Amino acid sequence: MMKTRRVNRRQFISGAVSAAVATVTFPHIVPASALGGTANAAASERITLGFIGAGKQSKHLMRSFLNSPGTHVVAACDVDRLKLERGKKMVEDYYAGRSGGAYKGCDTYGDFRRVLARDDIDAVVISTPDHWHAVTVIQSAEAGKDIYCEKPLSQTIAEARAMVNAVRRYGRVFQTGSMQRSDWHFRLGCELVLNGYIGELKHVTVGIGGPPADEPLPAEPVPDYLDWDMWLGPALWRPYNSELSPHLSYDGFPHWRNHSRFGGGGMTDWGAHHFDIAQWGMGMDESGPVEIVPPDGKDYEVLTYRYASGVTMTRDKANGVLFTGTRGEVETNRSHLRTVPEGLKDQQIGPNEIHLYESRNHYVDWLDAIRTRSKPICDIETGCRSVTVCHLGNIAYKLGRPLKWDPRREVFIGDAEANRLLSRPMRSPWHI
Fold first, then answer.
1. CA distances (Å), 41 to each of 28, 72, 211, in order?
2. Cα-trace Rg, the chain
3. 344-359 pLDDT per residue, tens
4. Which of 139, 134, 130, 178 is nearest to 159 (CA)?
5. Which terminus, N or C, of the chain has the lesser number of Cβ atoms within 10 Å?
6. pLDDT tens, 173-216?
7. What pTM was computed for the model?
8. Distance CA 170, CA 143 (A)
9. 247 close to 83: Cβ distance less than 8 angstroms
10. How many CB atoms are closer than 10 A to CB 398?
11. How far apart are CA 246 and CA 28, in angstroms?
């Protein structure tokens, strides 16, 4: 996919972009607050943001969006009062340093629905635990907000598809937080593969962690600063344990993703990054594998995927993602690109060859897409397909047998037991 044409505010208002607007795949009227493109834009011309989640990942996201031109952070939400207070302080300190101490305007909430109810918020940034993504994304779309949501996109395959449907139905601009697509090492690596510089692609090796361990955790007293029932939200109830929601510091590492009620282990954590790049390099952004085989101790030593093209992919030892072809290799990771032959990494992609969408900043790319009502580099359909690969692997691990998958219909073929694992029960009143 070539990079979508960008337009500035003056061009948009003058009507000079009628050709670009005609290519947008969903109708939407751009609010005045979404047309700002400079750091000193009038308040009415900025993209106003609310944050749903104020924990460790939100710290990085808040800093990134505060430093992005033409934005104004006005609200934050979290079920942990101490994390919320820190997020509020970060935002207000940032603006106070630029306004002589006059700015004190980041409102805080314990319920994300209060953020969505505000008409003055154009877009939301979601960095909750994975089990909350589907509910918050769908309700944000229904509320008319554009959305940036952290990876992995969803807790189940059915949730991912429901999220796509809601975003499309309400014409929202959505960016999945798989920011490796905005790193040139990954883009060039995938372009080399797609343009045949390593010959015919035969195999992809992805180096990530495994499925959730679900180790037992004893019940502990709930801290007075945490709304544990709201933290659980749609997940099935279990007693509080500090391993799931620690409050040590911004750098305290939560282990909720190692428990299948809340996440998908390393398979969805780094898998949402590296399987995403594997899909990109195979040209599978709107499809996926047709067979998944878990390790059996005999013929299959590692988790193996097969694609209709004949390409296989394994979860095995690799420095990120390794593409192997009939004439060479491309291995790519963050700040890393290795090729065989070595000089291949210096190859210039010709003007008539495949050029992937180029984004140099994942956050600004989403903001630009909001202004032009176009799809950003990691649109929700891409996020859906990538997280599906992660979940397919986890389901194969859980059942311990080969599975046939129909990527068009998004169902397992002739396997009722596996199809029951495409979704999960949700606690009332939450639903999708």
1. 22, 10, 46
2. 22
3. 999 999 999 999 999 9
4. 134
5. N
6. 999 999 999 999 999 999 999 999 999 999 999 999 999 999 99
7. 0.89
8. 9
9. yes
10. 14
11. 41
Separation of first and last alpha carbons in the chain: 31
**All domains of the chain, ordered by start, with CATH?**
9-180 (3.40.50.720)
* Token pair recorded at residue 247: 């409050």
- Decide if 66 contacts 84 (C-beta within 8 A): no
Q: Distance between CA atoms of 174 and 378, rounded to whole angstroms?
A: 8
Task: Quickly count: other Cβ atoms within 10 Å of residue 323's Cβ.
Answer: 28
* pLDDT score, position 246: 75
**Total residue count of the chain as it appears in this document:** 432
Structure token pair of residue 194: 């797609």
Which pair of tokens denotes residue 260? 């299948």
pLDDT higher than 50, residue 27: no
- pLDDT at site 392: 98
Q: Supply 390's token pair.
A: 């992660």
Per the structure block, which two tokens stand in for 259? 């428990």
Q: Regarding predicted confidence, which is higher, 307 or 255?
A: 307
Looking at residue 252, its pLDDT comes to 54
Count of beta carbons in the 10 Å neighbourhood of residue 68: 17
Helix (H, G, I), strand (E, B) or coil at 190: helix
What whole-number distance in Å separates Cα of residue 240 and Cα of residue 218? 8
- Residue 46 CA to residue 48 CA, distance in Å, equals 6
Identify the three-state secondary structure at position 257: helix
How, if at all, do strands 291-293 and 403-406 pair?
Answer: antiparallel
What band does 254 get if pLDDT is binned at 50, 70 and 90?
A: confident
Question: Residue 314 belongs to what H/E stretch?
Answer: strand 312-315
CB 383 within 8 A of CB 282: no
